[in-house]
Design brief:
With 337 residues, this protein is an alpha/beta fold. The protein contains eight helices and 14 strands. The chain has two domains: 78 residues, no CATH class; 173 residues, 3-Layer(aba) Sandwich (Rossmann fold), CATH 3.40.50. It has a six-stranded mixed β-sheet, with helices on both faces. Helix 3 runs antiparallel to helix 4 and helix 5 runs parallel beside helix 6.
Length: 337
C-alpha cells in the first residue's frame, strides 16, 4: 500500500512537470506564428502624421486655328502643360478619335426677368440638344432654375422626352439661382458619370437668389471637369426679333460674370438674340466637342492645401493665331474633402 502511494505521487509529479513545460511562455512562443505588425503611419520629424494623397488632373482641351476652326490630328508631344508656371509631365492622352460619350446638362433660367424671352429660351434649348447630342451615344438632362432648382428630365438620349420636358415649362418663377443650379447639377449629376461633361446655361446672367457664389460654381465645375457654355438672352443687337432682348446691353456686369463662369471652365458664352447666329454657334460648339483632347498629369506640387493653382496649356510648336480652350485653374484637395 505504501509502495503504491509513493508510485502514485511520483507519477503525479511527473505529469505536473510535463504540463508546466508545455504551457510555459517559451513553448507558447515557439508553437505560434508572430502577429503581423501594422505598417507604420508616416510621420515627419516632429511626429506629425503625413497624409498621402495621389491626385491626377484631367484637362479637356480644344485647339482652334486663327479662323476658329477646331484643330485635329495632334498627339501628346504637341502639348505642354504648366501649373503655376512649372512644367508638368503629361501622363495620359485621349485624342478626338476616341469618341467618349458626352453628358450634357441644359440649365434654363425661368425667373421673372426672363418672362418675355421664355419661348426663345425653350427654342434655344431644343436647338442645342438637336445639334450637339448624338443618339445612342450622348445623354442630356434638362433643369430649370428660378427661386428653386428643378430636374424635369434626367439623363436620356430620347429626344421626345426632352422636347416634352421643355414644352411643359409654362410660367416663370420669381428669383434667379443660377450658381445654385450649376453647383447642384455638378455635385449631384456629374460626379459619377464616365465621359465628357458639359453644361449649357440659358439665362440673362443676373443671379439674385443663390446661396452659392460665382467662385463656388467655378470651383465645383473645375472639380468635376465640367465645361460650361452660356447663352445670354440679354445680349441682342439693334432690331433683334427676340422679344425682351434689349439692344446695347451686351457685357454688363452680369454678362461678364457669365463669361467668366464659362471661360474659367474651358467653355465660352454667346451674347446674341439672333436665332440664326445662335444656331451657327451651336454647330461650332458641337464641332469643338468632337475635336476635344483630354490631357492628364500628376502635379509636381504634392501639397493639397486647397489653394488655387493656375493652369496653362501651350502648343509645343506655336501656330499663328491658335487658341486653346481649357480650364484655367483648380484647387487641389485631399481625398474626401
Amino acid at each position: 500500500m505504501k509502495r503504491i502511494t509513493t508510485y502514485t505521487l511520483l507519477l503525479m509529479l511527473a505529469l505536473a512537470l510535463m504540463a508546466w513545460t508545455f504551457n510555459s511562455p517559451a513553448s507558447a512562443q515557439s508553437s505560434q506564428q508572430p502577429a503581423p505588425r501594422p505598417t507604420p503611419t508616416p510621420v515627419d520629424d516632429d511626429g506629425n502624421v503625413i497624409e498621402v494623397t495621389t491626385r491626377e488632373v484631367r484637362l479637356p482641351v480644344t485647339v482652334l486655328d486663327k479662323k476658329e476652326q477646331p484643330v485635329s490630328g495632334l498627339n501628346i508631344g504637341d502639348f505642354q502643360v504648366f501649373e503655376d508656371k512649372q512644367p508638368q509631365r503629361i501622363e495620359g492622352f485621349i485624342d478626338e478619335r476616341e469618341a467618349l460619350p458626352i453628358y450634357i446638362g441644359v440649365l434654363m433660367d425661368t425667373s421673372s426677368s426672363t418672362a418675355g424671352k421664355l419661348q426663345f429660351e425653350k427654342q434655344a434649348a431644343k436647338d442645342f440638344i438637336y445639334t450637339v447630342m448624338r443618339r445612342r451615344k450622348d445623354k442630356v438632362a434638362f433643369v430649370t432654375f428660378d427661386n428653386e432648382v428643378r430636374l424635369h428630365q434626367d439623363f436620356t438620349d430620347k429626344q421626345d422626352l426632352l422636347d416634352k420636358a421643355i414644352d411643359n415649362i409654362k410660367k416663370p418663377g420669381a428669383q434667379t439661382s443660377l450658381y445654385d443650379a450649376v453647383w447642384e447639377f455638378c455635385d449631384q449629376k456629374l460626379r459619377g458619370v464616365v465621359g465628357r461633361r458639359v453644361i449649357v446655361v440659358i439665362t440673362d446672367g443676373d443671379d439674385t437668389y443663390s446661396r452659392a457664389r460665382l467662385s463656388d460654381a467655378i470651383d465645383i465645375a473645375q472639380q468635376t471637369e465640367t465645361i460650361i457654355y452660356g447663352i445670354s438672352t440679354k445680349g441682342g443687337f439693334a432690331g433683334s426679333a427676340v422679344p425682351g432682348v434689349l439692344a446695347g446691353t451686351v457685357k454688363d456686369s452680369e454678362d461678364r460674370e457669365l463669361a467668366r463662369l464659362c471661360e474659367q471652365t474651358g467653355g465660352r458664352a454667346f451674347f446674341t438674340g439672333d436665332v440664326l447666329a445662335l444656331e451657327r454657334s451651336f454647330t461650332k460648339v458641337a464641332r469643338e466637342l468632337r475635336s476635344q483632347y483630354i490631357l492628364t498629369y500628376k502635379p509636381t506640387n504634392e501639397i493639397y492645401d486647397g489653394r488655387e493653382r493656375k493652369i496653362e496649356v501651350r502648343l509645343a510648336n506655336k501656330q499663328d493665331g491658335a487658341k486653346i480652350l481649357t480650364r484655367r485653374s483648380y484647387k487641389p484637395r485631399k481625398e474626401g474633402q
